Structures are given as C-alpha cells and as structure tokens.
What we know:
The chain folds into 4 domains: 83 residues, Phosphorylase Kinase, domain 1; 214 residues, Transferase(Phosphotransferase), domain 1 (Orthogonal Bundle), CATH 1.10.510.10; 262 residues, YVTN repeat-like/Quinoprotein amine dehydrogenase (Methylamine Dehydrogenase, Chain H, 7 Propeller); 273 residues, TolB, C-terminal domain (Neuraminidase, 6 Propeller). It contains 10 helices and 63 strands. It is mainly beta. It is globular, with a radius of gyration of 32 Å. Helix 3 packs antiparallel against helix 5 and helix 8 crosses helix 10.
Amino acid sequence: MSFIAGTKLGRYEIRSKLGAGGMGEVYEAHDPKINREVAIKVLPSEFSSDSPRLLRFEQEVQATGKLNHPNILAVYDVETHNGAPFVVYELLEGETLRECLRRGAVPTRKALDFGSQIANGLTAAHEKKIIHRDLKPDNIFITSDNRVKILDFGLAKLIEPTNTDEPQTDVLTRKVNTDPGAVMGTVGYMSPEQIRAQRVDHRSDIFSLGLVLYEMLSGKRAFHGESPVETLNAILKEDPPELSQLNTHINPGLERVVLHCLEKNPEHRFQSTRDVAFALDALSGVSSSRTLISDLPAPAARRKTPAWLPWVIAAVLFVGLLSLFVISYLRPTPTEESVVRLSVVLPENVTISGQIGALSISPDGRQITFAATQDLQNVLWVRPLDSFTAKPVAAIGSFGAPSPPFWSPDSRFIGFFSEGNLKKVDASGGPPQTLCNLPPARGGTWNRDGIILVGTTAGPIYQVPQAGGEPKPVTALDPTRFETSHRWPHFLPDGRHFLFFVRSGKVESTGVYLGSLDSKETRQLLPNVLSAAYAPPGFLVFLRNETLMAQPFDLKTYTLTGEQSPIAEQVAYNPGLGRGTFGLSENGVLAFRAGGGQIDQPLWFDRSGKQIGSLGEAGTYFTVALSPLDEKHAAVDRIDQQIGTNDIWLFDLSRDGVSSRFTTDPAGDCCPLWSPDGSRIVFASYRTGNWALYEKSSSGAQTEEMLYSSVEEKIPDSWTRDGQFILYESFNPKTKWDLWILRTGDKSASPLLQTDFNERQAQFSPDGKYIVYTSDKSGSPAVYVQTFPLSSSEWRISTGAGSQAQWRSDGRELFYISPERKLMVVDVKLGPPFEAGVPKPLFDTRILTAGPEFRNHYVVTKDGQRFLINSIIEERRATPISIVKNWTALLKK
Length: 893
C-alpha cells in the first residue's frame, strides 16, 4: 500500500515518500514523542502474507537492531500497521554512494576515508556475528558531513556461537528458504562463494568491500558483463582490469590492498575487515577522520596488528613503483571485443503482445524499456541490464495494444503513449507528464534539441516540444504514391534528418524513407521493408520479413552503401503495423525479441473446447463475423502480407471455406458487420484519412459507399434486428472510446454512452432492448449490460475483468473472454427485469487478444454450440528479450 502525507502509522505521521525497493517503501515521517524526523520502511500489504519476503524483512530488523555504530544505520522502533510491519530508522541527509559514483570516480583521499569507515562499520557487525551479504554502493549512504552509513542488512546471515568444532558460519539462528542452489545478493557485488551458493562468512563482505573500493577509485565496476550470467562468470574466473589502467594516479599499494580483498579464495584475502581498515589508514597516513575514540576497543582489548602487514605494505609500494616503470611493456595488446549474448525474461504474468514491437533500449545501452500487458493492464517497465528484475514505471491503460516507448537522448526519460496522450516519465520512477493529445500513435523519437517526433496510424509525422505543446505536422502524405500513413520515426545523429516508415496502397511505395525537419521533401531509402533505425558507426538496421539486416549508411550523403548483412533471425514483427521488435543503443548493444511474425487462424470449437475445424490458411487475422440468417458465410479482416494493410475477405462455409476478397481499396479496411438480413456489410476504412464507416452489398456486386464520416475514428459494433440502429465506437482524445448510435434512416448520429472512461465492443441484445459492452471504469476492462435506450439500470456481468461479450441468439446466454483467455458463459434472462447468473468457464482458448482491442476475435453460432475463434497457432508470448553486445562483430563473420 502507499501512504499520503498526513497518514498516521502508530504515533508516526507520514510527511512524504522517499523511495521504494524490493523490501518495501520508505517514507519520511515525524515522531511527535521525540519531536524528530525519522525514516519508515513499510512492507507492502500485498506481501505481508508472503512468508519468505516477511522473513527477510524480519531478518533486516533483527540484524540492524543488534548494531550500534556510527557507520551503521540506526533502528529506533518496530511496529505494524493493518497487519503490515514497519521499521523506524534514523533519517539521513545526503546521497547514496551510487549517486555519488554517477559523477565519476571518488578522489583517492576521500575513497580511503569512505573505505575505512565502511570497514569499521562491517567490523562492528562481524563482532556481533552478522554478515551483510549485500554490500554495494546502493546500500552505502554518504551523509552531508561525509559520514558513511551502511544500509540494508536485509540479506544478513545471523550466526549463533556454538561449542562444537563446527564453524560458526554453518550454524544459523534463522534460515532464508530459497530454491536449491539459489544465491542471495546482488549481481556484480557478490563473492565467488555466494555465487556458488556455498556457506559464507565475514570474508564474503571483504570481497564486496573490495569491489566497492575498486569502483570508487576507478569509476567503473570491477566485473560488469552484458548479462548477469556473464558478470557472475567473470567474478568466478577473471581478474578485474588493472586499476592503474583506469586511474593513472592510483597508489600501487592501494591497488594491492584492493586486489587482496578480491582474491577468489577466501583464505587468500584479508582475514578481517579490521585488517582492511588498518591497511587503508596506513596508506592515508592518518586514522579515519570519522572514527570516534569511544568506538575503539580499550588498549588491552585491541587486537594486535599482524607482524606481516607493514612488511607487505612496504613491499607492495616498492613493487608498485617498479611496475609503473615497466607496465607499458608488460601490458597485453588489446584484443577485439567479442559478441556477448544474454536473455532477459519478462516479469511473472507479463506478456509483450505479438501485435506490436513494444521494446526499446536506452542510448547508453544500460537499460531496456518495454510496454507489456499484465492482467489486461498495459504497463511500462524498465529493466537495467545489470539487474535481475524489471520495475513498472507507468500505467499505459487497459485498451489497445501498447505502442513502443522511446528514450530521451540522455537515457533519463522515456516517452510513451497512453490512450490518446503522449507522455514522458523519468526512468527511475515518478509521476508521468502529459505532453499533448494525439490520434492513435505509431512510434516516437527524441533529439538533443528537445524535439519529439511522433508517427500516427493514418497521417503524417508530428513534431512536439519535449516540454509539451501542440503537435505540428512535419511530413505530408503524398497521394500520388497512395500513402496512407507515416510512422515509426527515428532521428539520425544530426538531429535534423530522420527515418520513417511509409504505408502505401502500392507495394513499390511502401518502405523506409528519409525526412527532414527543414523540408517536407522525402526520399525512399529501402523499398518494401519495415521500420529502420540508425546504429553507429554507420549502419541502417531494418527488418526484411523475419530477418534483421544491417547495411552501411553514409551520413554525409544519406545514401546506403555496401551489402546487406543478416544479424538476427526469426525476429518478431507485425506487417500490418510495419514494425519489428528491436532496438539499438549508441554503443553497440542490440535488443530484440524472437518469434517471427504474428501467426493465427480462425478455428472452430465445440462447447467442450474440442477443435472441430478451421477456416482459411494461417496468417494475420482480426475480426470474424458470421452471416446472421444462414451462418453460411464468414466475413474476416486480415492483413495483406505484401503491402501490410487490412482487407476484408468472405469465406463460403458451405463450400469448405472457399474465400474471395471483399475490399480492394489501397487503404486499410476492417471490422465487418453484417446487416440483419445479411444483404450488406458495413465496415471501417482508412480511405478518408481516418476510420470512417462504409457500406457494400455482401454479394460484392456493387462498389462500396460512404455511410458516415466525421473527424473522429469510428469502428462498427452491432446492428439492431429491425435495421434501424447501428452501434459504433468513436474515439475522442478527451473522452477516449465512446459508444454512438447511427440511425440508418436519416444517417444522423448521436452519442449513446460518453464518459471519461473507455466503452467498447458493444452488442445489441436479440430483442434490441439491452446492450452489452466493455468498460474500464472500475480500473480494468469489465463486461456490463445497460438498457437501450439508456436508463439508470446497469448490471455488471463479469465478476472480474473481461471483454469481447456476445449474446446467444435467443438471449439466454452471454459469453465473454477472461484475462486468462478462458471463454466464459453467463446465464441471463431478458427482462424486465433483467437477470444474470454467475459466470462459469467453458474452456481455455488461444484467442489472439484477451483484451478489448479492435472488435471481438470470436463469434458464437445461433444455438450457442459452436465457436469460431481467431486463435494463435503457435504460442510465442513467453519469448524472452535477447540482448547482443558488440553486434557489429557479427558483420565480420
């Protein structure tokens, strides 16, 4: 749970939120009893029943509470609030060592001071038989007066003394239950024995302290691979780069101390942190300026300094000076960097839709962001490549497949699209900022001058200031090339020219083009390929079918040179959107998702879930609709693989599904709706520059005619049996998706249900007196029924989330799709009064989309016994994200 200012937790009053992490949320609060400001860490209520997490939280409290040292965060109190435990700590002013290191290496004298304080704090903990086990810059705080505070003993291992000969490290007073072979700690700061899941003692903290010292002195991590696995292998098998190569002013003796901490074998390291502190103090010439006399043991109890240590330090100083003289001759010749691959698994219960490449990598190559769906909610996630976990940073909304996010050039902010709005959010978290309203978007890009370019589903590229403002068109559709959409812009390094994808009714006009902020003239670079991106030192990377290709590109002439070379196979893509699922950093890191293109097919199922037939060939399908009287024909919209636009096809079910093309316009056509007598089909078309309603005889003998058009996007949903009313969806940036009524007599339209929420997928009841529809007014998509015309009566049908509702032809049952892709059935009684039973699952489906995008992806026969479901042929949702470092080396193989 989250708390607002003024909330009382016991006697403590919340002032503001300071941050959040895997172990809970941290708040600034006031303690009226002592009249002081404190910090409070609260375990989230949803995890209060999670025994392992709660156990770790209790360990942190017990471990920290046993310590009383000026270099360790103090614990004041422990209480609970509504069943969730919280701990009260001292409130610190300053910054973490991680934040300090973002400015670069720490000066040597200060690094010695900080290192000595850390060693003293760890010594106090080790004397209490407590091992930190997760020492890293993020858990080290530097106060405003340069005092070091060690934070988060949440992974501490409490050691109980024993009278047996068994080592103390083997006896636990409290055990962390982990999977067999699991490791506890943070990648990049773990000791070899932690990685091997062996029992550890205080010398593991010495190894981690060595890593922290190394990073303070060099500004770089000692072991930092492009994946957690590579990092762990480096810790086990490799030596870190020489500090003298990264910091030419490093004292050789200090480098030797650091390396002595980083010995792979614990027996070869310093044997106590007190010895580390002594060595650091010897190099600085003075004791730590932050060590208090009262903190030191009495002279009689002081441990005797090892006799060998001064001699070692003197020898190290001599060898270090000598090595500086000959190092240029001994240093090995650098070898060419090799390709490094790793996989990033998505968070639990999170999927990236197969319909869109919602993935991007930061320009500095350190983080990836992806828009993914979790329980029908679209969420923006960020995953640092040196971390095991991704964190959510913004909610995108529950309707529609999420469009790919994009990064600011400094890798700090992420631009994304949410239900008609362009927004940005800090990658580290915080409230999103709305920049402008937009029609349905298709991609964005951001230059160093603060200009954002955005593509749209049916229009030009727009320009928006990074601070927000009115979108202005940068490109113009060329009717002579039958262009219908400009999308997926990508800035080139000069920040003035950009790449973008053109969708056109002509195959030869479709492809990647070059545009400029200074001119509306455009030039085709790559015909008949999907979205492209530029990658240093000089390549265009693009998708051709399922293969990711690279070709040399001259930034002076803006022309392609050389040959095309494949760099990845089976890359996920969607030809209808003109987008491949890949991203590139400025320093040679490639991110992509495998799985090939979206493959689905309408399949027949009986009421038990048994497949009893299929329709057409595997491809890319969307809406399915049966002719209402005889059910002998099916209208389906699917993507033309050559030009990437939707068209409507008719299937004759009485002739084994023989198909014929129903629409042929170069623009996209979708969402067929049969008239009550089956003589006509209404559909949505792009041909006016936005989704408008068209009508055509179902025999195909006549040409289509405009039925209704306005500035808003429109999708037809349902037709009353008496033929008087057509129910359609209309998009407005202010009110989102609304339900409108079109009167077929005079062609007049008026809103039926227009709120601040999304209302979609509406269907008239068989008697025309009710409508069932999907709305997200409860926070997630759910199925509702209202009277028609509207009244104050409303019934919620789905007990949880749900979408894509359909009536049985006699009105006795309602069907809908659950978030788990289950086909649900509800017994209903048309009123008055209207009555609905409890939803029950019929069977599991592989329906293309379990959410409220587009229209229904299935249809039920009149008797409710058979279902035609647009199904995924090969399930690919769980495919991890692939990361390739130094991908340009692939071109040389």
